[in-house]
Amino acid sequence: MNSAETARAAAEKRATEAEQEAARLRRSNAAQKPGDLDALRVEVRKEFTEALARAELSAAAAGRLRDPADALALLDVSTLAGPGGDIDAAAVAAAVEQLVKDKPCLAVADQSGPASVRGDVGAGPRDTAEPEPATPLDRLRRVYTSHE
User: Fold this and answer.
1) Using one digit for the tens of pLDDT, what is the confidence trace for 46-91?
2) Helices 37-61 + 89-102 axis angle, to 10
3) Helices (DSSP H) in 37-129: which residue ranges?
4) Distance between CA atoms of 52 and 91, rounded to whole angstroms?
5) What angle do CA 146, 147, 148 make, to 5 degrees?
6) Would the pLDDT of 95 be above 80?
7) Is there a contact between 75 and 57 (Cβ–Cβ < 8 Å)?
8) What predicted TM-score, i.e. pTM, was given to this entire model?
9) How far is Cα 66 from Cα 84, in angstroms, rounded to an integer?
10) 57 phi and psi, to 5 degrees?
11) How far apart are CA 87 and CA 95, in angstroms?
């Protein structure tokens, strides 16, 4: 890791810590003021709902994506919760399915059949009557002259 990457990682860590501290202070201030108790409840419910939606999304992506963290990085978690804070399981499944359709490279490889081999790997019986080259140098000459 070079110095720029180290500095960026440190800055991102400080930013995350500052956001967590700000949230803690907001909750602390809201608890001090009796009128802000409802605001505190709304904020805590929102944080809990987002955490629950992330967990639900990770669980749904576990069997479908190579790395379930990709779903968390690429999908908007806030769209998966209803207005009451309930997680819509159908929306989670649909979001993961759409991600697999849009980015099939993220999907788990299909293990149902044998892997297909492309091209000649140089093994097995040959249909050609051409004799094997006597030396490795002859083999190289054959390869280079056949592609000209």
Assistant:
1) 888 888 888 888 888 888 888 888 888 888 887 887 777 788 888 8
2) 50
3) 37-61, 69-74, 89-102
4) 14
5) 95
6) yes
7) yes
8) 0.50
9) 32
10) -65, -40
11) 13
